[in-house]
Give the backbone structure.
Amino acid sequence: MKSELYRQAIDRLVAECLDGQGQIGPKRARRGLWNENARSDYMPDQYQINEFLSELSDSQREILAGMLEKQFSGGVFETLKALEDLKIEPFLDGYEGSPYHDFIGRLTNWEWPSQ
């Protein structure tokens, strides 16, 4: 049986992917504007992203947004693998094998087992 802290941690990471930091880049990509304050002489890297996004169709921006979402959740997945490998509590194991398995399950609406 896993601790409530374990469940809270996994659920917090899922929330960040679906509704938090993991959605900032995808929302910007979908909108077609990365940073409204960027100019060629102020934040030129972000200005270039604005220019790039403006050249994409809606469907291309949707593809890019999906890639950004997957990269964010992939980073969480790899972090959970590292926490398990380093034997850091409470990420030594999970309900479905490893904590990263539980994370992927929760991303896809898998229900926690009853305690």
Summary: The chain is about 65% helix and 0% strand. The helical segments are 4-19, 24-31, 44-54, 58-85, 99-107.
